[in-house]
Input
Amino acid sequence: MRNTLYLFATVALFVALLPADDGARLLRVDHYVRVNTKVPVADGHPMLVYMREVVHAGTALHGAAAGKVALFVHGAGTPGEVSFDPNYQNYSWMEYLANAGFDVFAIDMTGYGRSTRPWPMNDPCNLSAAQQAQFVPQLISAPCAKPSYGSVLTTMASDWYDLDSGIDYIRTLRHVEKVSLLAWSLGGPRAGGYAAQHPEKVDKMVLLAPAYNRGGSSAPPAKMPADGPTMTTQTKAEFAANWDRQVGCPNQYEQAAYDVIWQEMLDSDPVGATWGPGVRRAPAVTTWGFNNAAASKTLIPTLLVAGAFDKQVPPERVREYYADLAAPRKIFVDLACSSHMAMWERNRELLFKASLDWLTQGTVAGKQEGMLKLGY
Output
């Protein structure tokens, strides 16, 4: 296993010194895993991959029960701690599972959140000309002649490497052989593609709106790094517009929750927060390896969830993955009144409970295989 850096090694001692009745206290622990990155622009150089842990003090001290260690994997834009642990009411999926006795982690891939952001992300010359004018006023009169990097920044291979490093770190830290994976959106190719390669390290999977590409390539493109934008950005207005186009029910989401989540996105990106009105930045990713070939050899028990109004990863694509998945234990859930952002919406607790039932019992609504509707 790789060399890692655990910055909070005193947590176990701290928990041991707590009064007996503090065993149920919920802890949030920051971990940084040292990796020799596979991101093309810095291949082989050391970087830090951030993981947040949410766990009860007693569980951290005594260890989670078998099958109760899980890792959340984020999507294309929003880092793990914002996606799965927002600080608003009962919106934290991580906290929900921690309260059920799980030891729960969320990872930020290289270029996201608190993980190392490769240098091209901090150069506004790697934005499009229109973005430069919008976000960096001093470049309006003198835009960059050309980008300083000018290629897609990260790859599915570099993401799989980060994920493998995080999983090995957790396996060593918590003395387990396998970890369950919960993933959202582009987290589907990250987690599902990884699981197809390393089934010996994955217990179960829960995939919300996985970005499946049935006919996609199994191999990387011949040219690496690939041509294309270095990073993506999103403003608050773009975030709202994207969410609103996926609303099909009254009161599908709360404005107050939206405001908190957006602010946490900016807090996770101090540089992007200074660009124009404040933007959320993410690396552009070259993807492959989450296709029919990968699905056909994946035997890991898998719960799939699609929001009825998802326009980013339409439910039909998730159904295709369900059809192609070789796992004998698999469930597809059609979640009513839900968008791509289902974990932040009114039916989130149906999603949370389904994930808990799957991880603990291997069933949802008493079934271990088939298609279900929830919230209708």
Remarks:
- The CA atoms of residues 246 and 311 lie 6 Å apart.
- The two ends are 46 Å apart (CA to CA).
- DSSP finds twelve helices and 13 strands in the chain.
